[in-house]
Write a structure and sequence with these properties.
By secondary structure, the chain is an alpha+beta fold. The chain is built from 2 helices and 7 strands. It has one domain: Hotdog Thioesterase (Thiol Ester Dehydrase, Chain A). About 15% of the residues lie in helices and about 35% in strands. The N and C termini lie far apart (about 35 Å).
């Protein structure tokens, strides 16, 4: 299995997924292969983070960081030439939070996702978010893919 290590910056990520502006939560893709991806982000500290409420970014917001990593992985691992497809979280399983909020961590978060199974209509990933080796959020997600994103 070939691993790709060349970093992919935030502006390129925003072209791969249907999230733009402040809602693009990943700063870069560090590496990826056909079944997994590792990203970094410091957007949990950004004052313009749209997930911030009452000055805080709750731990469960990490699911959106992970979902974006899954979306980027889907584009890189199988649909590079295709338009971004909308995906909907159909289920979350075994979600565990090791903190109550993400914005308390100074520095980059590591967001990892591993494709467990999938086809053209649905995909299942395990995911984790860590900071300096500490597990912050982890679980499994099933995503239903739309046939085509709206223009």
């Amino acid at each position: 299995m070939k691993e790709y290590v060349a970093p992919i910056p935030r502006d390129a990520i925003a072209r791969l997924i249907p999230h733009a502006g402040a809602m693009c939560l990943l700063d870069s893709v560090v590496n990826w292969d056909e079944t997994s991806i590792r990203c970094v982000s410091a957007r949990h500290r950004a004052k313009d983070n749209p997930l911030r409420q009452a000055g805080r970014v709750g731990a469960l917001c990490g699911i959106e960081f992970a979902a974006q990593a899954m979306a980027v992985h889907g584009r890189l691992a199988g649909a590079i030439g295709a338009r971004p497809r909308a995906g909907y979280l159909a289920s979350l399983r075994e979600v565990v939070c090791g903190c109550d909020r993400l914005d308390q961590f100074d520095g980059a978060l590591i967001i990892e996702a591993m494709r467990l199974m999938g086809d053209e209509e649905r995909v299942m990933y395990s995911f984790s978010i860590t900071f300096e080796g500490r597990a912050l959020v982890a679980g499994r997600a099933t995503v239903i893919l739309q046939a085509e994103s709206p223009p």
